[in-house]
Amino acid sequence: MKNLNKTALIVSFLVLLVAFSVLSMTSVPREFRYTLNGMNPWRGIEGLAFTVKHFLHTGTTLTYLCTVGLIFLIWWRLYSIFNRIWN
Length: 87
Description:
There is one protein chain. Helix content is 74%, strand content 0%. With 87 residues, it is mainly alpha-helical. It contains 3 helices and no strands. It is flat and about 40 Å long.
């Protein structure tokens, strides 16, 4: 971790935010898609947590642990892709 690529790190966080914003935009009605409430990335994260809970039938703690793990996994793969592009 001593050779952390800061550009890839920032871009991967931004792409992750955009991905969860798009996920949030798809779950609201058409009138609210391009508002601040419709593009809120936290609603996309809540949607991911709801999906994990719905399909895996887990409790609250395990749902949030799985969600955090999935978010970390997605971010880490994005970082490795961007790191490979810029190195």
